[in-house]
Design goal:
- This protein is of the alpha/beta class.
- Helices cover 40% and strands 23% of the residues.
- The protein has 10 helices and 10 strands.
- The strands form 2 sheets. A 6-stranded mixed beta sheet has the order 6-7-8-3-9-10, with helices on both faces.
- The longest helix has 19 residues.
């Protein structure tokens, strides 16, 4: 009989992850895990290996060594489209919306990329692909409304202010109905008010979707006020891991950030 009090298995497991570019060891011996519905911050100085870690998880840069598992399935080195179908979506440091498409069409792309019939077939609107399009539209509209973008749905995405473009990217990632979203510096370039709104929206995302969020961000107050757990990287390795309060008083973290 299963032990109902046993802890749930991790959603994502990273073991001994390494990424090498020629003679540069960008990520080395990295281990961590994320639970379902957990909001985790991944922080560290510039060049610490955070974005490279994201790229290894999402399939953009296959790891040199190590293991990435999602819900117990080995996804190490899978191409990005297969990682997305497995349940991992992401945003990027630089906004990557389609300039010629509306906000609604951009967000629908997230659902199409997760669909099994393929983007081109869905856009041709034939057979069961019409159902895929309807489903994509419904999911996109849900997240557009939930994240406060309803009035901009028909507007070209690139005409939105930067803060709203970043929200649209989050909505597109969620339209893929993931179990894990990788957010790469979502607050970059935002003002104080926009950062506060983004923080509340990310809480809404976790509450509404139940998916986990792994957040790379240089704004430490934002991370400390949002994340349940924080992982600190330095020179490609994990330096520390703990709750925000534990990280804030960790002497190794203080040394890295303050040079003390």
């Amino acid at each position: 009989m299963a032990d109902i009090n046993a802890p749930a298995p991790p959603l994502l497991v990273i073991e001994a992850l390494q990424v090498r570019f020629g003679g540069l060891q960008a990520v080395q011996a990295l281990d961590f895990s994320i639970g379902a519905g957990e909001l985790v911050g991944l922080v560290g100085p510039n060049g610490a290996g955070k974005t490279t870690t994201f790229n290894a998880i999402s399939g953009l840069h296959p790891p040199t060594a190590g293991w990435v598992a999602l819900r117990g399935r080995d996804i190490t080195g899978l191409p990005p489209e297969q990682v997305s179908r497995a349940g991992v979506t992401r945003t990027f440091q630089n906004v990557r919306l389609f300039a010629e498409l509306s906000v609604l069409e951009n967000v629908m792309m997230g659902a199409f990329c997760r669909g099994r019939c393929g983007l081109l077939a869905a856009m041709l609107r034939v057979g069961r692909h019409r159902r895929t399009e309807r489903r994509a539209r419904d999911v996109a509209l849900h997240w557009i409304e939930r994240l406060g973008l309803g009035q901009y749905a028909a507007q070209p995405a690139v005409t939105l202010p930067l803060g709203l473009q970043r929200v649209a990217e989050v909505a597109r990632a969620l339209a893929g109905e993931p179990c894990l979203v990788l957010l790469d510096e979502p607050a970059a370039g935002l003002n104080t008010g926009e950062k506060a709104r983004l923080t509340e929206l990310l809480r809404v995302v976790v509450a509404d979707s139940g998916c986990a969020l792994l957040l790379v961000e240089h704004d430490m107050p934002l991370v400390m006020g949002l994340a349940e757990r924080v992982i600190v990287m330095d020179f490609g390795r994990k330096l520390a891991e703990g709750t925000p309060s534990e990280i804030a008083c960790n002497p190794d973290v203080i040394r890295v950030y303050l040079g003390a």
